[in-house]
Design goal:
This protein has eleven helices and ten strands. It folds into three domains: 8-120, Butyryl-Coa Dehydrogenase, subunit A, domain 1 (Orthogonal Bundle), CATH 1.10.540.10; 123-234, Butyryl-CoA Dehydrogenase, subunit A, domain 2 (Beta Barrel), CATH 2.40.110.10; 239-383, Butyryl-CoA Dehydrogenase, subunit A, domain 3 (Up-down Bundle). Helix content is 49%, strand content 15%. Helix 7 packs antiparallel against helix 10 (354-362).
Length: 385
């Protein structure tokens, strides 16, 4: 299918990534899967490759390219190979936008060079055990010390991807009580050093899918956070979080489309090799019809994901458009991956086959970044309903 979203530079990056994945990831991916995380030193390799610095200003060691298209290429190539880069995705997709949007000049000088090199990995801690989609209901709090030099952070977070390896975490915490007319008021963002006294990593969570990305519970007991590590203005954190939700949801939508495309590729290869009753599975009409229907859905999802990507790069992707893209692409991926697993028969249920891992990995797409039900509410509101 003809695409116009990528140019020669993007395709050159694709070739580099594909070779890197084949050499550095595929041979050891089963080990990472068994361990439940990618090794920390792998992120240094990603830093050396330039993956983390594409959209970071040149003065801080990046390439200064203000585009999400290189991230899109990375998602396609990882899905194509049936691998992931561990928890590093949140480093760029969730961590970097807040640094670029909110960090002062001094903060950027302190943080971005290490961000680009992979020496300092970042994560975002928003969700709490009792607050998922209801961000305003968070209990974690940060109180300014009497001498005004630091905040004292207390509370806990859960489902924090990248939380095991993170060196610095953007923690959302209440610095003031909510107002009667605005319960979203009073949330602030802090770039917390994970080596701080009182900061602790709880369980590394045992997930259904995405097993190579480290996801953890975090706890804060009287953690001292210097005032210099406040991101943006105090009490305005909820608004900042909302600003980046569109790009986060685009990332999930595009990743889901890429997974669906990969599932068709895996199934097509399998049915051409597998024989039943003396014929290849690919020769049966049902197989052809199933794969054709899946390909049609993937083509539609690609168009939606590409359109959202162009709008995002142009700074024009609205909350409703991002919600629509996420809803559509994740639902397509759910249907396509399930049908492609069915074509694998019993082997589709075995983790040694990439389709099985893809099936498990895909399920969270309709939950995190806002559930499908939340996406429908956003779309309905934009329709005036």
């Amino acid at each position: 299918m003809r695409r116009t979203v990528f140019n020669e530079d993007h395709e050159a990056y694709r070739e580099t990534l594909r070779a890197f994945i084949e050499a550095e990831v595929v041979p050891v991916y089963d080990e990472w899967f068994a361990a439940g995380q990618a090794p920390r030193e792998f992120y240094h390799k990603l830093g050396e490759l330039g993956v983390f610095g594409i959209s970071v200003e040149e003065e801080f060691g990046g390439a200064g390219v203000d585009s999400h298209k290189y991230e899109a290429v990375l998602q396609e190539e990882c899905a194509r190979a049936g691998v992931s880069f561990g928890g590093s995705g949140v480093h760029v997709l969730l961590g970097l936008p807040y640094i670029k949007m909110l960090a002062t000049g001094d903060q950027k000088k302190r943080w971005l060079p290490k961000f680009v090199s992979g020496e300092e990995m970042w994560a975002l801690a928003m969700t709490e055990p009792g607050t998922g989609s209801d961000v305003a209901g968070m209990k974690t709090n940060a109180k300014l010390s009497e001498d005004g030099t630091h905040y004292v952070l207390n509370g806990s977070k859960t489902f924090i991807t990248g939380g095991v390896h993170a060196d610095r975490v953007i923690v959302c915490a209440r610095t003031s009580a909510p107002r009667e007319d605005d319960r979203r008021f009073g949330i602030s963002l802090f770039a917390v050093d994970t080596k701080s006294e009182g900061y602790s990593i709880g369980r590394k969570l045992d997930k259904l899918g995405l097993r190579v990305s480290d996801t953890a519970e975090l706890a804060f007991v009287d953690v001292k956070v210097p005032v210099e590590d406040l991101l943006g203005e105090e009490n305005k954190g909820f608004g900042y979080l909302g600003t980046n939700l569109a790009s986060e949801r685009w990332g999930i939508a595009f990743g889901a489309y890429a997974q669906a495309a990969a599932a068709v590729r895996f199934a097509q290869q399998y049915v051409q090799d597998r024989t039943v009753f003396g014929k290849t599975v690919a020769s049966f009409q049902n197989t052809k019809f199933e794969l054709a229907a899946c390909q049609a859905e993937v083509d539609a999802a690609q168009a939606v994901a590409d359109r959202a990507l162009e709008a995002l790069d142009a700074g024009e992707l609205t909350a409703a458009e991002a919600a629509s893209a996420k809803l559509f692409c994740t639902e397509v991926a759910h249907r396509v991956i399930d049908r492609c697993l069915q074509l694998h028969g019993g082997y589709g249920f075995m983790n040694e086959y990439p389709i099985a891992r893809l099936y498990a990995d895909n399920r969270v797409n309709r939950i995190y970044g806002g559930t499908s039900e939340v996406m429908k509410s956003i779309i309905a509101k934009s329709m005036g309903l």
